[in-house]
Structures are given as structure tokens and as C-alpha cells.
Amino acid sequence: MPLTDPHDDHLPLEGSSTAAPGAGGDLGAGAPEPARPDPDVLPDAVPTGGDPVPATGAGAAGSDADPPGDGAADTDAAEATPPEPEPVLPEPVRQRIVALTAAVLPGLPADEVPVPLRRVAKFAPNRRARLGGSVIAAQLTADPLFRQRVTARVLTDAGDLGAAVVEGTAPAAADPVEVAALAYLVRPRGWRELIDASGAAVRAEADSAVVAELVREAEQRATRAEHDRAVARVEAEKLRDELARVREELGQLREESRQLQRSLRETQVRERRANELLATERGRAARAAADSDAELRRARARLAEAEAAAGVAKASAKEARSVDDARLWLLLETIGQAAVGLRRELALDPVDKLPADFVADAFTDAPVTTQGGPAARARDTDDPARLDQLLALPRAHLVVDGYNVTKRGFGEMSLEQQRKRLITGLGGIAAQTGDEVTVVFDGAERMHGLPPTPRGVRVLFSRKGETADELIRRLVRAEPPGRPVVVVSSDREVADGVRRHGAYPLGADSLLRRLARS
């Protein structure tokens, strides 16, 4: 088996191209051994420490030791005889050679370590042989000088076993894998026979292990078979007992089956009777459904007639409403002309004060009696355009809940700035519409430092013990029935209170959008 495993994972190393061409990184794969170095350059003994290696052992270039003779004749013989191929190594021997080389690699001087192995020498011991095995094998095959240096280190650690391998002998008690690995590195006379003997021993051990495993499996199968026979006997006894019990149960089941057959026949008779009754009921249900369909058709016909009559009545009502509208318009015109004549006959002078002025001056707490019918003109809407429609009514009165509006619209300002901004905006509305505008604030007494009140705007502050909501309701109650009063507040209690007295409650957002538009 080749020394290098083609599937061995290793890291790419710098300088890996220094291996001799044709070696392919395999040791013992049958490739020709590289030529021996020049005897003048490569001495027989390694000068880098350790005991000298005999020329017949590690100093050889890879073949068996040659007998002593003339140097020129040896050189000619080497040139004439092609080198023998590397032997095929067993896998345990190949792994042991790589492990021995990896173990001594860090102990070599840096200049004696080939360039491809310098990175491998820095690996951890447990990773050196695993990741750099292919590179180590390639260098052992291609570099005899490196192999000699490794051999010197390995022989130093091997002791007596190394000395025996150098002499070409192998102790009987020695590990054949260890002997073959040392023989491959030292290469004494007859080293190939040592490797072949190691391979045979390894194969014999493997065969012995296989035979032992087969014997152990056979014994286990025999034990299991004996156990299975005992279990089978026990199971047979159980099955006999079970068979007797099953036969007894079978007799019981047969008796139950006969009883069930009798019950089945009785059930089938009852089922036939039930089917007959069901057919009768289905007939009745079909007749009832037919009667219901006929009644439904008659009801639909009556509904169509009623809808037609309703359409005729709606048209008649619309025509009557048109006539009533014309009569109402004529009546209003007559009343208007009569009111003008009555005002002329009574010679009423223009008034100086409005109802809200009396509330502002008197601040009385006496309840005002609500006259009948004002709730009929109350409206509740959040439409922003509704405020403009209500302010367009003649002699409209706009009442504003001051702080309720300012804190909703511009609450980040101070109270003084809130009041000033609201009063200024209401002055613009009063100037545009000509309506009466009253704004009410909470306060125990009239505050000082207010800006000049715009024309048409009345500013009121509630007294101590009284809220602005109560003052707003008093202002609404003081107005005569029929006058449009618009109250702007997002307070639900205020809106419900003024609605009962006939005012038009609107949310604060409608006024804020009206002010923003102005």
C-alpha cells in the first residue's frame, strides 16, 4: 500500500513543488527510487547529531546495501541497473512511518527541515501526522538526505530495537509494524524482506481477528439459538393455554352471535316499520311545503300590491307636502308683513341691551323657567360647515366655552396667551358675521391684563362657587324662544344641558377650524 493516502486531508503547504518529479507524493507505490546523491556531497553517516548511521543502513539511497568494491565500478553498476520500485506498504506500516517522522520533525534544526514541511513542523502533535501526512510521505520518498536525518533521530529513540533492525534482524517479540517502519527508514540489507514479513504478520493478525470474530459470532448465534429454543418452548406452552382460552371464548361468541342475529331480525322489522312511517311523514311534509309555497306566493302578491299602494301614497304625500310648503311660505310672508305693520303701529324703539347683557349685569342665581317647545329647534351635529350655516341665521348668538376650546386647540400656551388668541379670533368672526358673540371663562373674579375687547365680543368670567358651564346655561335660558343660539363646547354635559333649552351645541373642533381658516 502506498505510504501516502490519496484521500488524506492536509493543508496546502508552500514549496510543495520541491518534490522530485515522478514521485507523486507516494512512498511504496511502485515508483522508481530517486538516484543516489553524490558520495562527495552526501556522506554515509548523518553529521547532524545522533549516532552515525552505517553505510549499509540509513546511508543507502533506497536499495539493498552493496558489497564493498571499487567506487567507479559501483557508480557504473548503479548507472547500468535501474532503481528498484518502492515496496507496497501495509496501511499500519505506512501510518507508523508518518507518525515517527511527524514526532521527530520539530526536533530537527530549521535549516534541515525541507521547505514543504516547515509549516507542518509548527502544527500541534495530534494534527501533524493527520494533516501533513501526504507531504511527509512525499519528502521521505523524494529526499534521501531528509530520510537519513529522520532515521538518525528515530534510531536514537528506538534503542535496542533500532540496533537490531540496523543489523538486518528482527526480534521475535517485537511489533512487526514497528520493525517494518524502522526497516523502511533505515533500509539495511534485506529490508524489503522485513517489510514483506511485517505485511504477512499484519495480514495474519487481521485474519486471526476475523476468525476470532467469526468464532465469537458463531458462539453468540449458538447462545441466541439456545435461548430462542427455550423461549419458543415457553411460548408454545403459552400458546396452548391461549388456544384453550380462545376456544372457550369462541363458544361464547357463537352464542352471542346467535343472540345478535335474533336482535338483528327484530331490528330489521322495526326499521321497515319506521321507513313506512317516514314515507308517510314525507308525504305530509311535501303537502305542507306545497301549501306554504302557495301561501308565500299569495303573500308576495299582497306585498307587491302594498308597495304599489305605498308608492301612490308617497307621491300623494309629496304633492300634499308641496302644497303645504306653498301655504307655509304664503303664511310666513303674511306674518312678516303683519309684523312690520305691528312694529310700525307699536312704534317700538331700538333696545340698548340684549338678553345676555342682563345676565352679565345681574348674575342672578334664580332659575329661569324654560318655555315650552324650545327643544324642537335644538340640533346636534359635528359638521364643520354647520357653524357657518348657523351663524348665517339672522340675529344669531354665539356662546363659547373659553377654556374648553383653548386647551383643546392651543393648550401649550399660557392661559393669558390662550385667552388673548381666542378673543382676537372671535372678534374677527363678529366683524364678518355681525352676530352677537359671548365667551365665558372660569374665574372667581375678573382677571386683569386682558387685551381690549373687540367690538361685538362679550367676555364673561364665572363668579366664585359658579362654573362656566352654569353661566353658559343661564345665558341660553335668558334668550327668547326662536332666537338661534349656538354653544361651542366639547363638554358632553354642557351640550346636553343647552340642547334641552333649544340651543345648537357644536364641538370645539368646528370653531378651531373656523378660526384657522380666518
What can be said about this structure in brief?
This protein is mostly helical. The chain has helices at 71-80, 91-104, 115-121, 125-131, 133-142, 144-158, 160-166, 176-186, 191-346, 355-362, 384-391, 402-410, 415-433, 468-478, 492-500, 508-517; strands spanning 397-401, 436-441, 457-461, 485-488, 504-506.
Description:
The structure is a single chain. This protein has 518 residues and is mainly α. Helix content is 60%, strand content 4%. It contains 16 helices and 5 strands. It has helices at residues 71-80, 91-104, 115-121, 125-131, 133-142, 144-158, 160-166, 176-186, 191-346, 355-362, 384-391, 402-410, 415-433, 468-478, 492-500, 508-517; strands at 397-401, 436-441, 457-461, 485-488, 504-506. It has a 5-stranded parallel β-sheet, sandwiched between helices. Helix 8 (176-186) crosses helix 9. The longest helix is centred in the middle third of the chain and has 156 residues, at 191-346. The protein starts with 70 loop residues before the first helix and ends with a helix. The model is unreliable at 4-25, 29-80 and 364-380 (pLDDT under 50).
Question: Descriptors for this entry?
Answer:
single chain; 518 residues; mainly alpha; five-stranded parallel beta sheet; 5 strands
| Biggest β-sheet description | 5 strands, parallel
Q: Give helix % range.
A: 55-70%
What's the pLDDT, averaged over the residues? Answer: 76
Low-confidence stretches: 4-25, 29-80, 364-380
Order of helices and strands: HHHHHHHHHHHEHHEEHEHEH
Q: How is this fold's topology laid out?
A:
Blueprint lengths: L70 H10 L10 H14 L10 H7 L3 H7 L1 H10 L1 H15 L1 H7 L9 H11 L4 H156 L8 H8 L21 H8 L5 E5 H9 L4 H19 L2 E6 L15 E5 L6 H11 L6 E4 L3 H9 L3 E3 L1 H10 L1
Parallel strand pairs: 1-2, 1-4, 2-3, 4-5
